[in-house]
Batch of 4 targets.
Target 1
Amino acid sequence: MVETITATYVQEDADWAITVSGRGKELTARAPGIIAARDRADQLVEQLADGAKTTVVHLLNGSALDFTSAYMSARLTLPKLPPLEVPPPGSVPKQQTPATAEKKPQLPPSKQLPKEVEDRKAPAEPAPAAESKAPAKQA
């Protein structure tokens, strides 16, 4: 037979008080948020259940709907982050040039090309961009 265990949540300032009752016992705990409170309730349910098959009803203000709404809102809401600070122009260092950039790490011998192939490789130089002196089309 499946036995019902009830987990009741009460918000006390920033913390949550949890009371888990069933099978003639009652356990209590506190947690810093509703998500942590739900996790702690699961731990308390395991202590009460002793491996027996159980159904757990989670209640906030006596309502399973209120608990589900509060819990899912907390799970699906992004954390509040401080606003992004954009540095003033000119305070960001310029990008590294190829001469100052770090060299790539040496490949293991099994991944290196034979010397003959390396010698035949031509250094790839980007072609200079052609500047157009034609007047722009007028709309």
Target 2
Amino acid sequence: MTLAEWCVFGALLLYLSTIAAVKWIRFRRFDNSRPRDPAFYEDALSQRALGAHQNGIETFPFFAFAVLLAEYRESPQRLIDELAALFLIVRIAYVLTYLGNRPTLRSILWSIGFAINLGIFFMPALKRFLPV
């Protein structure tokens, strides 16, 4: 597997762990028979963890597809790997700023992550201009 493919797996684990951590920390109050109970997410940290989790679900398909498309279309693997690793680092920072209630920085990081995704996605179209 390539580094980029491992980063796709890492992005999956990141969005799962974001909400799993809150459920684990507050396990006595979490009712697994009602996993979407709004009462569980009443405190601010749980709300932000849920928001970060949901955003991870929203961004994951585009990232995974962009990586697979770039690899399938034989774009420079080293560049795909570097951008995928950078995306994962930005997403980790995004989650931390989300949990830390830093909305402006969070929005900046989201924009950077989206730009990285666009770069990976359009890499096949720009392949002739990229270093081998």
Target 3
Amino acid sequence: MERKLLNRIKVVLAEKNKSNKWLSEQLDKDPAIISKWVTNTTQPNVEMLIQIAKVLNVSVDDLLRTE
């Protein structure tokens, strides 16, 4: 079964020169959860996606794959 890459959190973190650990601290989330989001193993819910966008100073659209 092919895993779909649904979000661009990893890419945006790299563009902003931020780490998974930094994001976990900003969101007060376990680093393991952030790792699952970054690797597209699981997806954050809509409310969390909005928080991630705010922390990274990007739009939600910037975090989602549209292709």
Target 4
Amino acid sequence: MQGTKNLTEGPIKKQLFNLALPIMGTSFIQMAYSITDMAWVGRLGSEAVAAIGAVGILTWMTTSISYLNKVGAEVSVAQSIGAREEEGARAFASHNLTIALIISICWGLLLFVLANPVIGFFKLDTDISAHAVSYLRIVATGFPLIFLSAACTGIYNAAGLSKIPFYVSGSGLIMNMVLDPLFIFGFGMGTDGAACATWLSEATVLAIFIYYLKKRNRLFGGFPFLIRLKSRYSKRIFQLGLPVALLNSLFAVINLMMARTASTYGGHIGLMTMTAGGQIEAIAWNTSQGFSTALSTFVAQNYAARKKERVLGAYHTTLRMTALFGIFCTLLFVFFGSEVFSLIIPEKAAYEAGGVFLRIDGYSMLFMMLEITMQGLFYGTGRTIPPAIISITFNSLRIPMAIGLTALGLGVAGVWWAISISSMLKGVVAFVWFRILQKKIL
């Protein structure tokens, strides 16, 4: 099939690494946008970090919604490629882009209009809230850029060309790293400068994607970006992507509630710790998500081609790789949490509080990797509902668990323990669930 890679033949381990490494890099780069903003804004103080951290949870929710078309493209297009249906691959690619644009415009407009009451939910000081509202309104106008870039990434991942999103996203990150200090300090724009720098970088990423798809690499012989939607393709995309988008969006909503609890018990330092600490943890999550996405793409093509022995081989290889990465993250967070946090925010009270968060969260890293691996396996076989149920159930438990643990006298650390314990439970249940269904699926 024109412009794509066939993953149904050849060495499994090599193909997984060739897929996973660029995806890992792309995921890291996407998260590095927020880390870069926080690192520069951190030089303005913990209050400024709290302001963009509050918005960071909303942009996390935005990214979560965009998974509808990222995962929708990764699975629907990859399965069409595996079944040698080029027309289907073209149609799914076009539908994912069109749906992404419609949803992003509606979501961006909603947050732009409701910026004040949304930020008011965190009950921050007036000055911090004002900076957060301004920051949110700027980034909300760029949500279509995020959604369309996510859909393009999904299409290229499905085609086995994961290096292209890596290079494109990398260009955007380099631009963001250059523009952040220029806008924040050079132009004296503060937190608004960070938002403008990110907006321009995201626009550049989408422009490069469009150039690649239209000029450099015409996948499937070329396809239109915007089309009249057909129920056959739209329904399949929502079947595949909606559970993933919902579970990740609910995850963001739960973290919204957890952030408010952290703010209640720890003030702006508590909110800053959770949002900045969450971004650091997300480096581990999103980097390891590269293995999961590679596994999903590999499994989707081989599952459609009925090569189940290759599916199992890829699963076992991925499990070993994510386990090693999980052990590394545990050691790093448990023993060097404060040092890691201080790289983002040099304020002593901030990095000491952040060190406590990372130490507690570090105990769950291996289990988090297990959950991510099982997620990719489920997605590749077209079963996106089990991971959604697991995530929704145990992420929802975080709220009553956090309230209970803080009431027992743990204070804001009770919120961190609720996050860590629920992550452990998700990993165990995901593994057991797949083992029960393995004979039926494979």
